Amino acid sequence: MKKSISLLSIIILTLIVTGIISCGKNKKSEIKNITQVFLSDTSSFFYLDTENYPQNNPTMPIGIFDSGTGGLAVLEVILTLDKFDNRSHIPLPGGDGYRDFQEECFIFLADQANMPYGNYSREGKVDLLKEHILKDAQFLLGNKYYLSSSSVQPQTDKDPVKVMVIACNTATAIGKTDIENFVEQAHLDLNVIGIIDAGAKAALDQFQKDEDGTIAVMATAGTVSSGGYVRTIQQLQKSLGYKGDIKVFQQAGVGLAGAIDGVSEFIDPGTIMPRKGYQGPSDKHPELAIDLTKLPRYGFDWTYNHMLFEGDTASPRNLQLNSVENYISYHLITLLENIRNTPDAKKLKAVLLACTHYPFYTDFFQKKLEWLRNFQENGIYIYQPFLAESVEFIDPSEGMAIELYQFLKQRDLFNTSDLSRSEFYISIPNTLNNEVQTDGTGNFSYEYKYGRDAGRIQEYVKRVPMNSSNISVDTRLRLEEKVPTSFQLLREFNRNNQKLQGLPLEDKF
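Structure (tokenized):
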């Protein structure tokens, strides 16, 4: 009898354990639609109470997000814009001496943990990227953030936004329509402004209506694969009456945005030899090949550890780029070689820096192009015949800033606050989530970052105030130099945070 009871107990226990495991597996494998979670899953961190969303309130901040800190270059253009009379809001040549957005406040998000966005399409993870982009929008619409990486419970005092600006070209190309569809589904009267239309129009502005030429789009792989700029340029070319033969060439700047933001799989200032885990161009890479037979054309910087390689500079092998400037050199040469080898190519007249990170290095882009213009082999100019006398490098941000101002005018949403209320957030890996996998630098490992699947709704990241603990020294110095207005607001935001938390006032920036 005892043996029978024991056997029965074992069977029951086995069934219970099996059921628990099965339920656990089902829970883990459950796939959810992120927008439905936003709208109806009240138990989710990502739930939004859209029915009570405050709409069309001028005192609300302007929301802006990007895949990384490069979006601060877009914010800088917005903050320093002076194209209108601030009283009448009419366009005024030369401006009125007052910054157009000086009485607005902004909430900025850099999704640094998940960047670079351009690689998701390359890794076949566009659905995952769309989910990240929708979560960026949810953050701006919601009220939650964490004070630090160790915080268990979120704060709930962040303001919602009155308009949303997508600074990121890839996010605009891949996810703007998804955000707009969600806004419509949620019955929110909120405008979403992307950067692609403004960039395409600015490029066409460089041409006479009957002029031939080439526009180059330098962007992330995601933006390039979406074809967003090509379609928009062609549509505007037709609608605006351009009759010339205008060609569009695209160059996917794989690794460049990541290198600018210090992403470890693309750049490592602390190493001197080729390394494992590198994901950028190389002589050994089947798709991002450095052509050793044309090595002088790149004009790489071989000093210090800016180029990692084996052997010597006369016959290097296993090449890895390890400076932002060398990434720019590689991608400019690849672009010009593509134009040069295309029959009936037209002269390059405009280059769209179609990634928020690229305008930080406009000066080097220009300097490098002039070097290539004068580059000769055996007394022959290799690239000069394919370059217009003047080539313009275009940052789409100004056109988008103007569009934002015109929207505020149209909807009577101008604020009477001050910029010092602006807030800055950045995403970091959520190490309290047991599924999260990081590398030695504390960032997502490459395999984990691009190995996740869409629909498994969880907190991969925490959005925390941006400060010196979550951006590198190089990034801080770059921001201080390149975007001084944004940097000063970021500094003020940090000091205000320290006061609110009762912490000693430390100038972390």
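The CA atoms of residues 279 and 285 lie 9 Å apart. The chain has a mean pLDDT of 92.
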